[in-house]
């Protein structure tokens, strides 16, 4: 009976107090959880701030014109030159070369898994292919240096460090990205479309290439762009395999240097903080960050804009 | 019907069926061959690493510290460094990631801010890992944003700095995995809980989280297995390559398995390359064990919570 009077009692009652405490606790929890989510926003803000602040200090000493149009990159030598084009060229060469492997191989893999393979085969093959994406990139670097380069040496004469071996391993490691994202896109095409195409007498090949693939095109193209973005940001395999020679060339048998490999090279050396040499890595990283961001945003746009909406 | 379309007659329809089916078979063969490319490459890579590395694979390899002499060099400091780093990363990324996922799924209002957070998370997942390394170098190692005084001097080139950097790196993966797991909990469960007067947090803590836990755990372990193979960000924050001791606390300098492997790969002598292959075998074994654990936990806890 005492509890009943407390329940109907005024603001001083025990139950009222308990409920008030409960509400405060609930609010506090809400704020703590919000702060957890805010960490991700702070991370982005932190990345942008750091790259921009150090980058601006760099561009106080080196004009952006010289940086983006110069064709010589020797910031660590006494005769300094700050033209980032050789690094961008090396990065793009590896990314494009890798795309020549990952796009065709990933696409046909996705088509096989989505359109041809039985559920059992699919259940076995998909996880195996995912392993390719899970292998640490330093392992790919090792393999490129000790196996791929000697293999290429059977047909051509690559230098010990060469862009071609990096292209091969980066291409292979991005296959699962293309294949699984494309596979999702192909899978999302409604069965009705296939049935309709079969009903007018198409073969499986025609259904796949003329109906299903075009219908999934936005997702498929997004997967290509994301794989290329991943290749641009790839670090360890290209650092180990492609060498550290900033070199504006289109010959994949030569040693080059990518943007990421340059950043690693500087941070492994004993370049002191606060010097212009050290700030180059922030300018290069800013360029890299903007490049990958643009590619990721384009991929997201492509998916959203050209998606065929079914049902 | 055909009368309405005089240009189409029975004669204009040439099925060429056998030709079209041959093309289809050729295409199927192409697709199968393409699928095999990845699998064959994986097999070649694994056998190549095994062949190179098995020579040094013995107990002393795990017990010894790095050395100038390949036959005496070992993996102990790297192995322990990786374990310390992963434990630190998990300690930071798990609560923050799950908290963020709960916020986004159960608390967040459907408004501009929430959408912005969600878009930001998917963008973060696409930022190259080496950029996270620069973030860690400035914020956690040096305690500065590059301008103005250093706040508290940072943690130096220590395990805690590496763990914090890695936690930020895998946070998007943990959050997305946890969100998926929370989404999969049926709404009727929440409604029943609210129906008997539970508050929002009571509902989350007693009903949603236990149901979502296997999925969250699996996602976190897979994210951690990504962290254990990451090299670039740790090179940025200066994880040392020659560490001849086990780390003892969070402020100690450290090295990790991938960095030690990188160090061995980048030496010219072939013996060190084989040593790198031995290191890779150990690293892949640890990765495989973590993935097996993830699968096992999903199966086991899944049964326990009756889903």
Note the topology.
The complex is a heterodimer of chains A (311) and B (307).
Chain A: H1 2-7, H2 14-61, H3 64-69, H4 85-116, H5 119-134, H6 137-152, H7 163-173, H8 175-187, H9 191-199, H10 204-215, H11 217-233, H12 236-242, H13 259-268, H14 276-305
Chain B: H1 17-53, H2 59-63, H3 76-107, H4 112-124, H5 129-142, H6 159-183, H7 187-195, H8 200-229, H9 232-236, H10 257-265, H11 270-304
Helix pairs in contact in B: 1-11, 3-6, 3-8, 3-10, 5-6, 6-8, 7-8, 8-11, 10-11
What's the CATH topology label of the largest domain in chain A? Answer: MetI-like fold
Largest sheet of chain A: none
Largest interface: A-B, 89 and 89 residues
Unreliable sequence segments of chain B? none
**CATH fold-level topology of chain B:** MetI-like fold
Secondary structure tally: strands of chain B: 0
> How many DSSP H or I helices of chain B?
11
Are there runs of chain A of 5+ residues with pLDDT below 50, and where? 1-7
Secondary structure category of chain A: mainly alpha
Give the number of domains of chain B: 1
Helix percent of chain A reads over 70%
The N- to C-terminal Cα distance of chain B equals 56 Å
Which whole number gives the mean pLDDT of chain B?
87
The biggest beta sheet of chain B reads: none
What is the beta-strand fraction of chain B?
under 5%
DSSP strand content of chain A: under 5%
Q: N- to C-terminal separation of chain A?
A: 59 Å
What does this structure look like?
By secondary structure, chain A is an all-alpha fold. Helices cover 75% and strands 0% of the residues of chain A. Chain A folds into two domains: 2-61; 85-305, MetI-like (MetI-like fold), CATH 1.10.3720.10. In chain A, helix 2 packs across helix 14 (276-305) and helix 7 runs antiparallel to helix 12 (236-242). Chain A starts with a helix and ends in a 6-residue tail after the last helix. The relative contact order of chain A is 0.13. Mean pLDDT of chain A is 89; it is low at 1-7. Chain B is mostly helical. In chain B, 70% of the residues lie in helices and 0% in strands. Chain B is built from eleven helices and no strands. Chain B has helices spanning 17-53, 59-63, 76-107, 112-124, 129-142, 159-183, 187-195, 200-229, 232-236, 257-265, 270-304. In chain B, helix 3 (76-107) packs antiparallel against helix 8 (200-229) and helix 10 (257-265) runs antiparallel to helix 11. Chain B is globular. The mean pLDDT of chain B is 87. The interface between A and B is large, with 89 and 89 residues.
């Amino acid at each position: 009976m005492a509890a009943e009077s407390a329940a109907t009692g005024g603001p001083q009652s025990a139950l009222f107090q308990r409920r008030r405490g409960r509400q405060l606790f609930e609010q506090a929890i809400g704020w703590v959880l919000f702060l957890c989510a805010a960490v991700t926003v702070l991370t982005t803000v932190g990345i942008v701030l750091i790259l921009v602040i150090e980058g601006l200090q760099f561009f106080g000493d080196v004009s952006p014109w010289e940086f983006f149009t110069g064709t010589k990159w020797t910031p660590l030598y006494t005769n300094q030159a700050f033209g980032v084009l050789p690094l961008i060229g090396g990065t793009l060469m590896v990314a494009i070369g890798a795309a020549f492997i990952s796009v065709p191989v990933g696409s046909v893999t996705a088509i096989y898994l989505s359109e041809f393979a039985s559920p059992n085969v699919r259940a076995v093959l998909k996880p195996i292919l995912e392993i390719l994406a899970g292998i640490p990139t330093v392992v790919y670097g090792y393999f490129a240096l000790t196996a791929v380069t000697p293999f290429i040496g059977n047909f051509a004469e690559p230098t010990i460090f060469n862009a071609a071996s990096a292209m091969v391993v980066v291409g292979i490691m991005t296959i699962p990205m293309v294949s699984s994202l494309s596979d999702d896109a192909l899978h999302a095409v409604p069965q009705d479309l296939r049935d309709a195409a079969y009903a007018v007498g198409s073969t499986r090949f025609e259904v796949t290439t003329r109906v299903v693939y075009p219908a999934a095109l936005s997702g498929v193209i997004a997967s290509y762009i994301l794989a290329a973005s991943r290749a641009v940001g790839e670090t360890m395999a290209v650092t180990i395999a492609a060498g550290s020679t900033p070199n504006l060339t289109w010959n994949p048998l030569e040693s080059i240097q990518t943007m990421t490999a340059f950043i690693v090279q500087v941070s492994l050396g004993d370049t002191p903080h606060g010097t212009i040499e050290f700030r180059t890595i922030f300018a290069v990283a800013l360029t890299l960050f903007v490049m990958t961001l643009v590619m990721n945003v384009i991929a997201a746009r492509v998916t959203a804009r050209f998606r065929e909406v079914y049902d | 019907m055909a009368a309405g379309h005089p240009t189409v007659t029975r004669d204009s329809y040439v099925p060429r069926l056998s030709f079209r089916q041959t093309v289809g078979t050729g295409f199927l063969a192409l697709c199968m061959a393409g699928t095999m490319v990845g699998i064959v490459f994986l097999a070649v890579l694994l056998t190549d690493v095994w062949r190179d590395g098995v020579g040094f694979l013995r107990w002393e390899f795990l017990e010894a510290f790095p050395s100038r002499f390949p036959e005496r060099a070992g993996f102990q400091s790297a192995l322990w460094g990786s374990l310390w780093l992963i434990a630190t990363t998990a300690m930071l990324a798990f609560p923050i990631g799950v908290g963020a996922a709960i916020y986004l799924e159960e608390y967040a209002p459907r408004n501009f801010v929430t959408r912005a957070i969600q878009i930001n998370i998917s963008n973060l997942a696409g930022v190259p890992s080496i950029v996270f390394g620069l973030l860690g170098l400035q914020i956690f190692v040096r305690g500065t944003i590059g301008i103005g005084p250093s706040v508290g001097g940072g943690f130096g080139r220590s395990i805690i700095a590496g763990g914090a950097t890695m936690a930020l790196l895998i946070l998007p993966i943990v959050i997305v995995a946890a969100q998926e797991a929370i989404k999969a909990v049926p709404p009727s469960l929440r409604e029943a809980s609210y129906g008997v007067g539970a508050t929002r947090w009571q509902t989350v803590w007693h009903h949603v989280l236990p149901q979502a836990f296997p999925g969250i755990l699996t996602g976190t372990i897979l994210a951690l297995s990504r962290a254990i193979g990451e090299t670039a960000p740790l090179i940025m924050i200066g994880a040392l390559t020659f560490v001849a001791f086990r780390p003892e606390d969070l402020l100690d300098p450290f090295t990790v398995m991938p960095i030690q492997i990188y160090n061995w790969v980048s030496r010219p002598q072939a013996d060190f390359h084989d040593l790198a292959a031995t290191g890779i075998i150990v690293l892949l074994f640890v990765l495989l064990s973590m993935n097996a654990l993830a699968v096992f936990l999903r199966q086991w806890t899944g049964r326990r919570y009756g889903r």
